[in-house]
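User: Fold both of these, please.

Assistant: Here is the first one.
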Amino acid sequence: MTHGGPSFLVVEGTNGTGKTTVAAALTEWLGAVAFHFPPEFARFREEAGLDRGMAPTPRLAYYLAGTLHLSSLVDDELAAGRPVVCDRYAAAPLSALEADGALPPGELEAWMAMVRPHLRRPDLTLLLTAEHAVAAERIGWRAGADLTPIESRSVSSPEWYRRRAEALRRHAATTGPVAELDTSALDPEAASRAAWDLVVGALGSDGRHRPR
C-alpha cells in the first residue's frame, strides 16, 4: 500500500456475508498478518458460554477486553512494519448485543466511549452485506446442523439479522472510514476481487500484491 505505512484493514459483516473468505484473500494479496479475536479469548468464549446466556454487561465487558487485547497485537505488528487484516473487530460484538436488545444503544456507546481512545483505528473497514436468504443459505451450507448461537439467530430471524446489519454499519463508522460491499450476487472469488478493488480505491497499491 502507498498511503504512508503498513495498513490495518478490518473485515466486518453479518454471518454469511463472506468475511472469512475475503479476509483470507486480502491477507494473501497484501502479505499481511491475519487476526481474528485472540485464541485465548476464543477458548474462553466457548468455555464460558459467552453467547449462550451470560448476562449482558459482563458479556460486553469480556468482548471489549478481547478487542483491546486484539488491538495491542495489531499495534505490535504495525510497529514491526507488517500490514494487518482483522476478521472482525469492535463492531462485531457490539452489533450482536444491540440486535439482541440486551443493552440499549446509549449504554453500549457509553462503554465504547471509554474503550475507543485505546483502540487502534483501522485504515479501512470493509463492511460486507448480503440479503438474508442468501446469508442463511451460506451459513447452513457451511455449518450444517452445528450452528453457533449467533449463526442460529442469523438464520432463524430475518429481523434479528437486519438489526445486526444496521448496528454493524453504525458501529463500524465510529472507528474509521468504511467501504461497503454487497456480496449477495458474488461468488467467493468475485467478492474477494471486489473487496480488493475497494481497498485499492481507498488506500492505493504499489501493485506488488495484485491478485492474479
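And the second sequence with its predicted structure:
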Amino acid sequence: MIVGFVLAGLTLGVLGSFHCVGMCGPLALSLPVQHLQGFQRFAGIITYNLGRIFTYSVLGFILGFVGMSFSFFGWQQIFSIVLGCILLVIFFASLFRKKIFKNSFIQNTWNQYIVRLLSSLFNRKTFSALFLIGLLNGLLPCGLVYMAVAGGLATGNILYSSLFMASFGLGTLPAMIAMSFAGSFISLKMRNNMKKVIPYIFACMGILLILRGMNLNIPYISPALESRHVEICH
C-alpha cells in the first residue's frame, strides 16, 4: 500500500513538472545562487527544493489527519469520489476557458504576505535563506499543489498522506533543478505551452480518485477499503 502511494506521488510530481517549470520558473531562475560555483551552487538549489518538499510533507501530515476524520465516519469513499468529480469539473471548465475559482480577498492578502517575505529573503545569500525560500514557495497557491492536496486528503491516513506529498515534491525535483541551471534556454512561450498540460493531469487525477472511491479492489488504482464503524457503548 505504501509503495502505491509513493509511486502515485512521484508520478504526479513528474507529470506535473511541466506546470512547475511554467509557473515557478521565474522564481527558480531568480534564486540567490549566482555567487556560488560548482557543487556549492548545486547544493544551494537542492536546499531550496528541500524547503519545498518539507512544506509539502507537513501539508501531507495535516491533510492525513483531516482525511482520517472522513475515514473514521465511513465517508472516505464518498469523499474521494467528490474530490475526483471536482477535478473533472475543473478540467472541463479549462477546456472552455472558464475560470471557476476567483482569487478571494484572503487569498490575495496571503499571496502579498508570502511575496513580501520572499523578497526579504532574496537579499540574504545563505543556505538557510534558500531553504526558507523553498519552504515559503510551497505555501503559494498552485493548481498542481491543489491536485496533490486532493490526493493527500483521499488517502485517509497520516503516514500515507505525508509520503504521498513528499513523493510528489521529489517527483518535481529533476525538472526544478534543470530549470535552475538551464532555465535561461527555455523561452517564455515554451513555458506557457508547458502549463497547458496541467488540465489533463487534473483529469487523470480526478479519474483515479473516482476509481479509488468506487472500491473496485484493483491494486494501487482502486484498493479495497475497509469500512469502519463507530461503536457505541451501552
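The two ends are 36 Å apart (CA to CA).
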